[in-house]
C-alpha cells in the first residue's frame, strides 16, 4: 500500500548538514520517541517500569514476542514458522506503525529510494518479481514487504500501532514481561518465554546538539517525518543534513525553490548511480521462468561478495579507484572551481555512506543553490546562526522552515526501550560505552533475548537480508532447544557468556582496522563518539554463516529450572 501522493512545492530552501553534531548527540529517550511517533503519554510511568505481581491473562501470554514489523521482524516470524516450532498463535509481533515496512513506512520524503540493488534487497527465498528498476524506489520496497508479510499471513499475529515501552526479565518465572502502549497511552502487560528485538536503527531520528532548536518559530520536521500536507511554495527553508536522505531530497526540491542553501562540513563522496529500468522481456522472465530470479540475484551478488571487502579496504587499489571515481564525477559535474573545492571529499571511499546519485552535484550547482561549509552555532527564533570555519565570523540567516536531515541514531541500540535482565541489569548501563552482542544477536545478562540487526550486524559485501536471515535462523534454533527442554519438564533460558561476548567483540573491532571507516580521521555513523565501531561486521557471508549455523553451547550461560517452579 503506497501513501497518497501530494504535491510538494518549495521555494528558498536551505540544506544544512548536521555533521557538526557528534554522532551520539540528540538521542531519543522512550517518552520523546513515543511523542514523535504520535503516542500519547502513559498515565502512570509505573505501568512501564513495574513487573506485574499477578498472573498474566492467557490472552496476553505468548511463546515469542517480536518487537518490530519491518523486514527483520517479518524474516524472524517466517523463520519461526518455517522451523516448525512456532505457529501463528504462539507469537505476537508489535509494530509501532500502522503497517508492515519499518523504516520504509516512516521515510516517505521526495526521492526516497534504496542504494542497494533491488535483486539484492530481497531474501533468498522470497525474491520480488515486480521491481521495475535496478535500484528500488521506496514504494516498491514497501509493497514487497506487504506482499511478503501477507503471503505468510503475518497479519494474524501482528498488533499495529503498538509501542513496546519496556521489557523486564522475571528470574523467578523465567519469562519476559513486556509493557505495550497504544496510541492513547493505555498500557497492556504481556508475557513471553522468548523476546526478539527486530527494531533496526533507521527509525529513530537524531537531531544533533546544536542549541536552540526548540525556540525556532517557523515550521520544522525531520526527513523521517515528511510533511506531505505542507506547501513550501514561496518559503525560505533550511534542510539540516547532507547524508543519503538529504542528498536524495535536494535534487527533488531545488527547482521548486527560490533558493537552496547547503551547510556542509564534511562533503560526502558521490558516484554515478547507474540506475536503469528493466525491460518487459526481463520482467516477463522474472515472473514466469522458474529459478530465473534466483540466477539474477546470484549474478548480481557474486561481484559484491567477491570484491566488496577490497572496495572498503584502505590503500587497496579497488578502494583507490573508487575514490578517484567519485572525484572524477565531481570534476565532470561541477564546473565552478570554488564550488568544486567546497564539495571535494577528503575521506576515502566508504569512510561513511557513499552517495549513489547522478543528480546531486547538478542540483548543488544550480544558480538558486548555495553551499556553505560553516559550523552551526545555534538555531534562533527566525533561523540559523552559523560561523565561517576560516574566519570565525558568525551570520544569522532567516528561514520559514527547517528540515532536519541529521540522520538516525545508528551508534546505539534499544535506547528508546527500557530493558532489564538478570539481577536488574539495565541494557543502557551495560551498553553505556558501546553496545556489544555475541554475533550481533544476543547480549550477556539478558536470557532468551535475541536480536535481528543488532550491534555489528551489517556487512557491505553481501545482501544485508541474508545476514539477518542467518540471525533469524539461529534464533529459531535456540527457540527449538527451549521448547525441547520444556517438553522434558524444564524451563530453560540462555544468554552469551560475558567472556566469550567480550572476546568476540574485540575480534570484531580488530578485524575492521583495515577498513576505511576505522581510520581515526573518519567520522561516520558506523561508529560512536569514542571510535568504537557499532554498525558493521568484518566477516564475509560464508564466515558469518559458519559462526551461526549451529549453537556452540560452550559460549552460552544456561539457566534451567523444573517447570512447577516457574508457573505463571
TrEMBL record:
<dbReference type="InterPro" id="IPR051209">
    <property type="entry name" value="FAD-bind_Monooxygenase_sf"/>
</dbReference>
<dbReference type="InterPro" id="IPR020946">
    <property type="entry name" value="Flavin_mOase-like"/>
</dbReference>
<dbReference type="GO" id="GO:0050660">
    <property type="term" value="F:flavin adenine dinucleotide binding"/>
</dbReference>
<keyword id="KW-0274">FAD</keyword>
<protein>
    <recommendedName>
        <fullName>FAD/NAD(P)-binding domain-containing protein</fullName>
    </recommendedName>
</protein>
<dbReference type="Pfam" id="PF00743">
    <property type="entry name" value="FMO-like"/>
</dbReference>
<dbReference type="GO" id="GO:0050661">
    <property type="term" value="F:NADP binding"/>
</dbReference>
<dbReference type="GO" id="GO:0004499">
    <property type="term" value="F:N,N-dimethylaniline monooxygenase activity"/>
</dbReference>
<keyword id="KW-0285">Flavoprotein</keyword>
<comment type="similarity">
    <text>Belongs to the FAD-binding monooxygenase family.</text>
</comment>
<dbReference type="InterPro" id="IPR036188">
    <property type="entry name" value="FAD/NAD-bd_sf"/>
</dbReference>
<keyword id="KW-0560">Oxidoreductase</keyword>
Amino acid at each position: 500500500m503506497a501513501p497518497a501522493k501530494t504535491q510538494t512545492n518549495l521555494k528558498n530552501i536551505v540544506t544544512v548538514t548536521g555533521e557538526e553534531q557528534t554522532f551520539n548527540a540528540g538521542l531519543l529517550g522512550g517518552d520523546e520517541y513515543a511523542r514523535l511517533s504520535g503516542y500519547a503519554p502513559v498515565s502512570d510511568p509505573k505501568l512501564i517500569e513495574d513487573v506485574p505481581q499477578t498472573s498474566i491473562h492467557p490472552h496476553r501470554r505468548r511463546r515469542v514476542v517480536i518487537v518490530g514489523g519491518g523486514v527483520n521482524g517479518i524474516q524472524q516470524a517466517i523463520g519461526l514458522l518455517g522451523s516448525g516450532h512456532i505457529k501463528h498463535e504462539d507469537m505476537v509481533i508489535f509494530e509501532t506503525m500502522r503497517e508492515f515496512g519499518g523504516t520504509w513506512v516512516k521515510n516517505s520524503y521526495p526521492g526516497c529510494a534504496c542504494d542497494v540493488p533491488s535483486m539484492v534487497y530481497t531474501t533468498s527465498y522470497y525474491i520480488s518479481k515486480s521491481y521495475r528498476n535496478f535500484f528500488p524506489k521506496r514504494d516498491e520496497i514497501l509493497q514487497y514487504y506487504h506482499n511478503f508479510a501477507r503471503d505468510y499471513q503475518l497479519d494474524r499475529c501482528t498488533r499495529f500501532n503498538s509501542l513496546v515501552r519496556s521489557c523486564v526479565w522475571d528470574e523467578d518465572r523465567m519469562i519476559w514481561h513486556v509493557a505495550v502502549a497504544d496510541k492513547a497511552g493505555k498500557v497492556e502487560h504481556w508475557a513471553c518465554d522468548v523476546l526478539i528485538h527486530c527494531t533496526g536503527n533507521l527509525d529513530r531520528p537524531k537531531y544533533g546538539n546544536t542549541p536552540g532548536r526548540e525556540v525556532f518559530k517557523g515550521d520544522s520536521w525531520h526527513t523521517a517525518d515528511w510533511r506531505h500536507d505542507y506547501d513550501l511554495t514561496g518559503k525560505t527553508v533550511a534542510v539540516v543534513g547532507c547524508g543519503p536522505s538529504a542528498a536524495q531530497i535536494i535534487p527533488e526540491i531545488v527547482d521548486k525553490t527560490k533558493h537552496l542553501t547547503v551547510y556542509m562540513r564534511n562533503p560526502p563522496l558521490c558516484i554515478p548511480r547507474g540506475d536503469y529500468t528493466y525491460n518487459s522481456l526481463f520482467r516477463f522472465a522474472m515472473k514466469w521462468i522458474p529459478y530465473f530470479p534466483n540466477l539474477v540475484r546470484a549474478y548480481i551478488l557474486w561481484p559484491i561478495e567477491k570484491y566488496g571487502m577490497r572496495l572498503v579496504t584502505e590503500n587497496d587499489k579497488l578502494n583507490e579507484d573508487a575514490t578517484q571515481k567519485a572525484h572524477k564525477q565531481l570534476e565532470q559535474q561541477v564546473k565552478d572551481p570554488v564550488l568544486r573545492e567546497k564539495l571535494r571529499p577528503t575521506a576515502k571511499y566508504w569512510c561513511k555512506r557513499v552517495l549513489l546519485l547522478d543528480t546531486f552535484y547538478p542540483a548543488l550547482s544550480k544558480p538558486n543553490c548555495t553551499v556553505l561549509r560553516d559550523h552551526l552555532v545555534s538555531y534562533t527564533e527566525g533561523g540559523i546562526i552559523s560561523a565561517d570555519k576560516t574566519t570565525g565570523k558568525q551570520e544569522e540567516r532567516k528561514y520559514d522552515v527547517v528540515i532536519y536531515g541529521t540522520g538516525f541514531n545508528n551508534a546505539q541500540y534499544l535506547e528508546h526501550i527500557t530493558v532489564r535482565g538478570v539481577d536488574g541489569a539495565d541494557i543502557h548501563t551495560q551498553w553505556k560505552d558501546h553496545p556489544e552482542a555475541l554475533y550481533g544477536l544476543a547480549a550477556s545478562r539478558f536470557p532468551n533475548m535475541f536480536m535481528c540487526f543488532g550491534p555489528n550486524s551489517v556487512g557491505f559485501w553481501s545482501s544485508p537480508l541474508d545476514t539477518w536471515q542467518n540471525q533469524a535462523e539461529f534464533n529459531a534454533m535456540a527457540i527449538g532447544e527451549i521448547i525441547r527442554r520444556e517438553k522434558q519438564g524444564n524451563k530453560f533460558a540462555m544468554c552469551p557468556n560475558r567472556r566469550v561476548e567480550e572476546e568476540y567483540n574485540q575480534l570484531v573491532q580488530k578485524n575492521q582496522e583495515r577498513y576505511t571507516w576505522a581510520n581515526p580521521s573518519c567520522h561516520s555513523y558506523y561508529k560512536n563518539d569514542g571510535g568504537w565501531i557499532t554498525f558493521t561486521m568484518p566477516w564475509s557471508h560464508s564466515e558469518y554463516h559458519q559462526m551461526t549455523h549451529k549453537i556452540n553451547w560452550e559460549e552460552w550461560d544456561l539457566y534451567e529450572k523444573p517447570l512447577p517452579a516457574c508457573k505463571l
